[in-house]
Batch of 2 targets.
Target 1
Amino acid sequence: MAIAACLAVFLLYTSIAGGGRPALKPSELAGHTGEEVTLTGRVAKQLRGTPGAARFRLHDIKGEGAVVVVYRDALSDQFKVGRDISVDGRLKSGVFVGKPGTMVTKCPSKYTDKKTT
Amino acid sequence: MTWLTLAAGAALAMLAVVFLARPFLREPSPAEDRIDGLDPAAQRRLELAEQRDRALAALKELEFDHRTGKVSDEDYRALVGSLRRSAARALRALEPPELPREPYPPPGELDPPQPPEIPEPYPPPDEADPPTQPRIPEPYPEQSFGRDGGRALDAGRSSR
Amino acid sequence: MPELGQAALVLCLGLSLYAAGAGALAARRRERRLAVSAGNALLASFAAAAVASTVLAAALLRHDFGFTYVADHTSRKLPTIYTLSAFWGGQEGSLLLWLLILTGYAAGAVYLNRRAAPDVVSWVVPILGGVGAFFSFLLVAVASPFATQTPPADGLGLNPSLQNPYMLAHPPFLYLGYVGLTVPFAFAMGSLLARRSDERWIVATRRWTLAAWTFLGIGQLLGAHWAYVEVGWGGYFAWDPVENAALMPWLAATAFLHSVMVQEKKGMLKVWNMLLVTLAFCLALFGTFLTRSGILNSIHSFTESSIGPWFLGFIAAVAAASIALVLSRLTLLRSETRLESPVSREASFLYNNLLLVALSLTVLWGVVYPILSEALTGEARVVGPPYYNFFLRAFGLPLLLLMGLGPLLAWRRSSAKGLRRSFVWPAVVAVVTGVALLAAGAGSSIPGLVAYSFSAFVVATIVEEFVRGTSARRATAGEPWAAAFASLVARNRRRYGGYVVHGAIVLVAVGIAGSSAYDTVRQARLRPGQSLAVGAYMLRYKGWTEHRAQNAIEDRALFEVRRGGRRVGTLAPGKNFYPAEQQTSSEMAIRSDWRRAEDLDLIVQRFNPGDRSVQLKALVKPLVNLIWIAGVVFLAGSLIALWPDAREQRRLALRYREAGAVLRA
């Protein structure tokens, strides 16, 4: 009983202390410049990037927001316009810089999972 | 295709209904229609039987642990007495003579000898009594929980 | 044809409702014939579900694209076995599989126990009927697999990375596990409803629980293995919500398996067990809810259908009703003995339970955290692998140690002397192993080193148990070693089967520790002729080839692998591109070195056509194959524990006969 109580307190503490990273949509990024967040959205358009850094526009899955994402790592095989992805990173000067190795691509059909790196 | 489907569906439904009605069709007017449950006496007996099995199993496990060295001699001596007493108590509690005495336990082996008829209000034997009253022989070191363990006590032959 | 399937589902729903309603009425009024009728309804619901399943399977095999489901998940060129596996490849079909297994288990459990405890079974029937009705309702009204359309020329096909034997078996095994947890739950609640205070329900469901737990464990290992060899990121478990969805009920079921032993032997933990079996069942439902509702940001996504709220409502109703029932029957659940000492086997079971449940709940907390934080603060926050890994170590390492300590402790209380005697040898083995590994360089990861040392301890205790048991048997029965060993295990299947399973868990722990705490990862962009060093290996990139297969274009990068200067082989990782499905799959190359017990994994992340270079990720994963080998050991141990024991059956039959509890045939 005592152990359970300790655990409960610990969990409550981590939640109140703000554990975890915010999980945001492109439209919600505005107030979070510089903060490390997990961004989720749908790939709207692939933009011209540089070798080693992919650049694409990410939309809200359901909604109007959009942001340009820069990702300095290999894109997964499933990455495509119209697919949903989530990636960790920070908003810097209006561009979302993704952390290498954190992009996860959802596949539209059931039961699949595709991770990069 | 559709009429075949309809026919198949209808057939299935009818089969199901018949199957559901089967108990009523088989016994249109039964002698009694109660679910056999446990009356409080039977419930109590079952609990006692479980307690007895638990106590005997614990005794056997203690023997095994002692034999394999997990429990030291002093620990064994300390624990076996009270375990034997609880086993005896449980056995005694299941005593009522009207119970059909199946092969378990073989009479005279695991049965505690009947204490003499003592009119109330003689106090029942308690924890502090030396464990001589119920004579429970050294449980066979067989690790099975089966009744063969009991039977084999007769001739000391090793059971399978 | 689809109409027949739909009709069968409607029939199943009707039968389940009858089983629930008439069954409850019969149980309450103790009417035998009505109860039998309700039981028959349960059996018939299985037949109805089977008919619906056959219709779907036949449509799949016929490539009948008039069925929307068939068109969405198969194509003409798909190999037959994968066409068949598309049955459970989507939302509706997987629900039908769940229903089929559920009604099958329900029919079996009720049929096998119909004479054993009719009063309990009379309540089990409406409970199982209720659950069946829920799933039938979903299939009939919310997500039917029998929707039709004008048939297109060809179907959408199955994602190529799912066309893999492990992915074939993974869902059925998981479902056999999830659904299997319904049976002990139903019997536990049925026992309470029938106002029984004995352990009959445990005896009746012991093997069901063990079997379900085994299926769930194997299912998870299959999924992890698929993730490792097919997905191409070098890992096998990512704490994704859907992976956690299977882990949580499995942990709760593990706790339940252990605490139920304490209840059987000591008459303790009765209330705890009732709550625990409810928790396990609700977590199983919650798990399947997670994978279907689209409510969480997961890389597995079914569809964001309206099915989520139904599940949530059902889980809430089940939890509330169960807790209310337990509270109303507390007098039946009084403990018969007390915990005498914190150093006893009962206590170690209790600690084991607390740790397992704590781990399960922390995983649950991590999973629902985004939802809760969004509801409370307006902003969703997620926790990542660091959170989960922290708690895995915090609770998992003590659990590992407990697996070794528990068997050493005696029931009721253990004296210092007794402990010392049993403790000494395994502790020495653990310390020696730890020191040796430290010298060999394993100090780079403290949790890894601790895991290895604890594992050594547990293995030593298991060996000690087997040796002591066998020699005790030899001494008393005079059998030679091999026969003594065999009869020892045969007479104590649960105990020694359990030890084998513990051995499997140790293998998993060692495999996880090795492959995550001591792995090496390197990434580089390589032009032809360039090399990359990873661990003790040197990889030289020779070039890339393209090969056109029947339905795919296969690009492979050739690597020469050297170790210690000597050439040990070539590896060709790459990618397949499937024009029909417009999908790319990563084909990683794995070289398993059995002597050194490590895997070398090469993954091509990108081909650069300009200069023929490749972006390569190379990993060296020590001991990872132990995890898969552990699966086999796990299965073996479970089978030993599950194996019917005629002696025990006789004893139990005798017990019930004596109490007058078994009635006319």
Note: Residues 32 and 39 of chain A are 11 Å apart (CA to CA).
Target 2
Amino acid sequence: MFGIFNKNNTNAPISNASEWMPQIQENQQRFFVFLDKLEFKIQELTAAAVPELSQMRNSTEESFKMDFHRMKSGIDGQLENIRKRAYEVHDEKVLDLFNEIKAAYAPQGSDQSLLNQFRTDCRSRYNLFEERFQNCKAAIDATDFEDYEIAYQKIVTEYATIKDKFQCKQCGSPIAIEKLFFINVHLNCDACQTQNTFEPSTQARMLQHFAQDLAHQRAADWYSRFQKEYDKERFYYHEMHPLKLSLNFEKEASIKAATEAKIADLEAKRQEAIRNAPQFKKDYLHKKFAEWKNITPDLANHLEIRLQNELNAIED
Amino acid sequence: MFKKLFGSVMGNEAENQAQNTQNQHVDANDNENDEEVYLETEYDPETLHGTHYDVDDFEEEVARLSEAWIEQEDITSQSEINNVYHNYRRDVYMAWNGCDTDQFIRFDNRNSLTHHGVAQMGNNMQEDENNPLLAPVHGLNLRDYAAICAKLGSGVAENDIYNAFGIDATIWGEINTVWPARMAEDTTFSIAVLFGQYFAEADQHPKLQGVKSNLSEEGEANLERLKNDVHFYYELTGARQAAYEYGLDGAQWILENFGIGLGDFQGVAMKYMEIQNQNFDSNYVRDCMAYQDQKQAEYAEKFAAEQGGNIADDVEF
């Protein structure tokens, strides 16, 4: 009489999925294909660009090095252009569609799950695109690498050949070049007191500009040691997090105890990393600045001030 | 009484919800103090503090709230302590002055050296005559150095510039090593900010008045327009960026198409940065950036067309 036992009348929401499912399925498929094609383009571009960029970067001609920077900027521009397209299409064809359907149809229950799944699946695929994009970007960025020992050795070799060849412009007497200069220097002739100007070569002038890079290169192992220790804090934090969450629902005492013991162990390691990282950074800085002073000894006093500034900035 | 009223806004137990409670308390007390609430706040032109309270009281209130929170949360890290102070400084400033975040940003920029230990462009910084990092090098001070840097970036013959300052290429080599070294040593960024200020005014340096500019007539006209037409400045900045993104030398492209050298261009950039910081307005900044982005996109299309399009142009959704 009241329809209480009428199983057909359950007040269940009427599904309208048939009205919008085809559209989300189509957009999802087209979005996946779209990203496949963009990924093909970025990988093709990266494969072609990397060897050329590497060659230019390590060219002996200074002008080719400048060309490297321009070309890399162009490649980076194209990569960003592609990335922006992926972002815009995701925005328009996935997120906007999702919001339109939600507003127009207010799907409930399993329909809502379907709609959410569309968004989630597209998001996952987009994240995968981003990951592949970053790999390509990293490969392009890696071409901006130079072994500064080679550049430094060239300067040292050149110095060995020129140090006894400089002559007074007035009387021709030899004037010894006592050290590696990277800027012009006035040198007086011992014989006739004429002031001469020694002008370092172009490559020697570059020394003060890549000295820090070379020093860092020589201290790379120390830097790597610091970075690994620094990263441990977040690593252990993320290891602990799910364990802590699991405690919220754990009723079994022995499991709780075991989990808490694991958390305590991870926390101890996290704290050790927090203690070590600043010291490891200081170790790296000492090594780097020691090398830097070796490369440009004339700047030793200035470099000591910079080292102290950097050490003071580290919080223990 | 006025400052005590606003002081009491912050002086309750729920200090950690200061930002939420402050508005409610201000509203609740509106009826009692109608006159003061509707008076427009006057700001000290130098410090940008409101003139209706003592700065000492302000600092005391910020310290009181900050130290309580630091103790409660057992904060030991100096950078976190600085952060707590910064947040409470913002809360107290905005409550005591009834202002928006743009006004707070102007206040924080103005007092950047005191609040954060670093100098900022836009504060018309004065030289501290006792700062050894500002001592002249080979008789040339920082203003001279900045002027030479700016002029060298404009393509004028080097020796003409050196002669104007009574130096040669050798002396310049030392000067150009020492000043950057001092900037690198200066943890307050003051030397760099002063350099920026002087760079912006390089064309007014007395010793450069006799140095012939090598700008074409078109270049002179465009440079003048760049200085006075902020939209033109953002258009060219966007165009230059687009040029780089298409593998061109952006600075060279500006020189070839508008006759403006990089040194002159960056001098104008410094000037606009100073003005923007002095009169910080987030809406204005956002509009400028949007305009620059729009222009960058327009020029990017032109460059793409010249180069046969973008690599993924044939990929459609």
Note: The radius of gyration of chain B is 25 Å.
